[in-house]
Amino acid sequence: xxxxxxxxxxxxxxxxxxxxxxxxxxxxxxxxxxxxxxxxxxxxxxxxxxxxxxxxxxxxxxxxxxxxxxxxxxxxxxxxxxxxxxxxxxxxxxxxxxxxxxxxxxxxxxxxxxxxxxxxxxxxxxxxxxxxxxxxxxxxxxxxxxxxxxxxxxxxxxxxxxxxxxxxxxxxxxxxxxxxxxxxxxxxxxxxxxxxxxxxxxxxxxxxxxxxxxxxxxxxxxxxxxxxxxxxxxxxxxxxxxxxxxxxxxxxxxxxxxxxxxxxxxxxxxxxxxxxxxxxxxxxxxxxxxxxxxxxxxxxxxxxxxxxxxxxxxxxxxxxxxxxxxxxxxxxxxxxxxxxxxxxxxxxxxxxxxxxxxxxxxxxxxxxxxxxxxxxxxxxxxxxxxxxxxxxxxxxxxxxxxxxxxxxxx
Length: 410
Description:
It comes from Brassica napus (Rape). InterPro entries: Adaptor_comp_med_subunit, AP2_Mu_C_sf, Clathrin_mu, Clathrin_mu_CS, Longin-like_dom_sf, MHD. With about 400 residues, this protein is mainly beta. It has three domains: about 5-90, Beta-Lactamase; about 155-255 and about 380-395, Sandwich (Immunoglobulin-like); about 260-370, Mu homology domain, subdomain B (Immunoglobulin-like, Sandwich), CATH 2.60.40.1170. It contains six helices and 23 strands. Strands 11-13-9-8-23-21-16-19-18 form a nine-stranded mixed beta sheet, with no helix packed on it. Strands 2-1-5-4-3 form a five-stranded antiparallel beta sheet, sandwiched between helices. A four-stranded antiparallel beta sheet has the order 14-15-20-17, with no helix packed on it. It is globular, with a radius of gyration of 28 Å.
């Protein structure tokens, strides 16, 4: 099988990186500069027209188009001909000067699985020539004529934060961060202009507003292509014409230390190599007004354990031998509460002389907390403006979820 590309670079005539896409994280922009240096060194050489170069473990495949170099770098034993063919295809995607966009929703208008006749027009599709390549013109959503309620003309915004935590056996947090996303679903007529405001510290301070306890500092912000980046950099306003349907408007990260929302302690006692007793305490460390739902606590047990007996003060627990774990499920876990689980497992009375080392898996926790965010992010406003003047209904929801949430026992 052909090796995979590590990164795709577009460089100007002087070798400066214009834009690049990192696929595997093993080639940096510095390698692109080394590539161009090698290219300069080869000038006048009999192999100067060779589209493939190799240096220090990295293979470079490139094509020059006008004043731009398209270059793929790879650290694997890759199929150079296939990747060079791909670069030529990238160039060919400019048809009569029009970029051939590959937005899935736009392509679905022209690529059909059933018999379909496309009317011949004198101009390219609007999605090709339009600056708003991610949205088709002429979208229409209607209201229910019987109830006069707007079944569509709505915007749903979900602010979802995933909490990643790793706690060692001494109870110390050795890694924690929050990865957030603003996920939208839009059902709007025409070409609406949307404006979104957050409790962003930079913006509020620029406006002379107080920020104590009400503003956040976002890191590693990434936007969907529909967001006007120049506007955001200028006044921190998130302004955009949305795609139709579901899309991720923005992602962000917070690297500040996070207090574990659900804390789990486990005491394990072994009795004469034939029986194991486990006492587990789970405590919610968020305010009482919030409630975690669909809580799952995965507790590792010995691979040869059997015949478990389990008692819980809330929820239910079941032995999952395929995971070598006891899974404790709590449907609703209110804030500032503590619950307990007691379990007893039997072990084989006969053990091998050379027993394999016991697996040291961590406790893993899953949960969702609706109407709650760790970062404190808030949507201050969401405005929808369209030239026809219709009224749209925005809905905003906040959810915090467990990402990679682990507590080590040893």
